[in-house]
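Ticket #4471: structure output looks truncated?

Reporter: J.K.
Steps to reproduce: submitted the chain below (69 residues) through the standard prediction queue, then opened the result file.
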Amino acid sequence: MKATLEFELPKENDEFLNAYRGSDWHALFQKYDNYLRNEMKYHDKKGSFQEARDRLTDLAHEYGLIVWE
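Returned output as attached by the reporter:
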């Protein structure tokens, strides 16, 4: 299966960059989620950090994104 995305540059440059750098955004989300998890696990910061992780996951799901597979 192949997929082709087409953009009208420079008019759709922002959309192009978002599509092109999607894996970077995914990595950023994972890194931030790991940061929150480690703060909870190793620095005894539960409560609001868990709320932040839950909110991050909820927002990702609203956009049809999966933070962890």
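Triage note (M.O.): checked the attachment and the full token line is present. The helical segments are 13-20, 22-42, 48-62.
Status: closed, working as intended.
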